[in-house]
């Protein structure tokens, strides 16, 4: 029976110990109603059972001290105020000094981009990320004094007649959102020593290099025709390839011998599953643009520079050495998503010195930064786990005292094991 899966003795495949971890102030799943912290009303029976399993935690420890920001008290204060719930925001608004320090990260207020060539660059919208991929790739190639190779994807269009084929092909290559085109970029941008991420992993790569694995480009094996062309123009900083290359990537944190060397995999072109997209075509024979529903499959090397991505991709990441972030968001997204995006962006760096902002206007402060968590974001978590959080804190303090881990400073403050458990 479905309900039996929620019983403590049978859930999680009867594993003896299960540890779950996460931050309720990250982006919700798509759609948000699929979250295990979503309101149960109106959910399917299966979803309610999953929520029941999730809520059946023996201990719930709420971590409050973020180690990433301990060297920047201003940043710690801003984020603490931002994530503290409560209708009375009089003591939780940013001080003028905090806003001045935060605004000083903005390019429009004098912040410099000098020395940021190898920093991350991110935004909520793909239209910005697409340009960031080009900018980061070009600057990375310049820093490493390497040629930047470019190779356009091949799109196999399945349902368009000959007269529209060229126009449709060009339109497909102009789509910035890789999620629309099988997670394959319109143009491969790659150079030796580039830090890259794998966007699609086939059966051959899955063992050593699953999706979103990162690594460093060790070698680029060009097609003989492209290699002959390039040898005549080796001084070129940018070189357009006519044939698909093979890229050897040293995968991060893997030293298994793959036959090509320790942790090295050969990344070749893959073809994604067919996708369908609506495209508008301008045609002088018609007064209005024609709308075509196009079915296609893309062939491309599944690599992009790792330091340019959407904010979704950066969840959980620390953007060392720094982050350039575009604060502008599409008008269509909700105030809740704008709030989360701002919180996410500010919490990716270790200090405000490692942040460069674009579009950090007073609107961001008035509507988003000075407001606490959106209604329901933390209340649902506390409604479900509030009592267990309190019980867990007591149990932790007792265990720390029994083990003799209570240091003198903590004891003098009378806070029990708070500093240990929160860090």
Describe the structure in your own words:
With 423 residues, this protein is of the alpha/beta class. The chain is 29% helix and 18% strand. The strands form 4 sheets. Strands 9-8-6-5-13 form a 5-stranded antiparallel sheet. The radius of gyration is 25 Å and the shape is globular. 26% of the residues are buried. Mean pLDDT is 86; it is low at 411-423.
Percent range for helical residues? 25-40%
Task: Quote the average pLDDT.
Answer: 86
Query: Which outline best applies?
Result: globular
Distance between the termini: 41 Å
The succession of helices and strands, N to C, reads: HHHEHEEHEEEHEEEEEEEEEHEHHHH
User: Tally the helices: what do you get?
Assistant: 11
- Which structural category fits the helices and strands? alpha/beta
Layout: helices, strands, pairs:
Blueprint: H1 45-55, H2 73-83, H3 96-103, E1 120-123, H4 126-143, E2 148-152, E3 154-157, H5 162-173, E4 187-190, E5 195-198, E6 214-221, H6 224-231, E7 238-240, E8 246-251, E9 264-267, E10 270-271, E11 275-281, E12 290-300, E13 303-305, E14 308-310, E15 323-326, H7 335-346, E16 355-358, H8 362-369, H9 379-403, H10 408-413, H11 418-422
Parallel strand pairs: 1-14, 1-15, 2-7, 15-16
Antiparallel strand pairs: 2-4, 3-12, 5-6, 5-13, 6-8, 8-9, 10-12, 11-12
Helix pairs in contact: 7-8
């Amino acid at each position: 029976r479905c309900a039996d899966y929620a019983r403590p003795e049978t859930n999680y495949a009867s594993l003896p110990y299960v540890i779950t971890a996460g931050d309720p102030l990250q982006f919700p799943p798509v759609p948000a109603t699929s979250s295990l912290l979503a309101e149960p009303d109106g959910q399917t029976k299966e979803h309610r059972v999953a929520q029941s399993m999730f809520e059946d935690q023996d201990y719930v420890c709420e971590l409050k001290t973020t180690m990433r920001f301990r060297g920047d008290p201003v940043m710690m204060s801003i984020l603490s105020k931002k994530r503290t719930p409560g209708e009375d925001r009089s003591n939780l608004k940013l001080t003028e000094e905090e806003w001045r320090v935060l605004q000083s990260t903005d390019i429009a207020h004098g912040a410099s981009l000098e020395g940021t060539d190898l920093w991350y660059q991110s935004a909520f919208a793909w239209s910005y990320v697409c340009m960031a991929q080009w900018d980061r790739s070009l600057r990375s190639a310049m820093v490493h004094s390497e040629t930047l190779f470019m190779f356009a994807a091949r799109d196999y269009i399945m349902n368009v007649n000959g007269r529209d084929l060229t126009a449709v092909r060009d339109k497909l290559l102009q789509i910035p959102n890789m999620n629309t085109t099988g997670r394959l970029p319109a143009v491969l941008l790659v150079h030796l020593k580039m830090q890259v991420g794998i966007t699609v992993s086939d059966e051959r790569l899955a063992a050593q290099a699953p999706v979103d694995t990162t690594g460093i480009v060790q070698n680029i094996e060009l097609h003989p025709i492209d290699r002959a062309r390039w040898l005549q123009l080796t001084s070129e900083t940018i070189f357009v390839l006519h044939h698909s290359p093979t890229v050897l990537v040293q995968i991060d944190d893997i030293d298994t011998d793959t036959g090509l060397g320790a942790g090295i995999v050969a990344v070749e072109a893959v073809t994604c599953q067919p996708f369908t997209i609506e495209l508008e075509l301008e045609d002088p024979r018609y007064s209005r643009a024609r709308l075509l529903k196009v079915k296609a499959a893309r062939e491309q090397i599944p690599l992009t520079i790792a330091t340019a991505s959407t904010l979704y991709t950066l969840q959980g990441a620390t953007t060392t050495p720094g982050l350039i972030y575009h604060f502008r968001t599409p008008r269509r997204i909700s105030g809740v998503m704008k709030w989360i995006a701002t919180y996410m962006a500010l919490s990716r760096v270790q200090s405000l010195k490692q942040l460069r902002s674009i579009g950090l206007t007073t609107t961001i402060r008035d509507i988003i930064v000075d407001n606490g968590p959106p209604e329901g974001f933390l209340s649902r978590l506390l409604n479900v786990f509030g009592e267990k959080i309190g019980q867990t804190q007591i149990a932790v303090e007792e265990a720390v005292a029994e083990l003799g881990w209570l240091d003198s400073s903590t004891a003098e403050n009378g806070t029990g094991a708070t500093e240990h458990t929160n860090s």
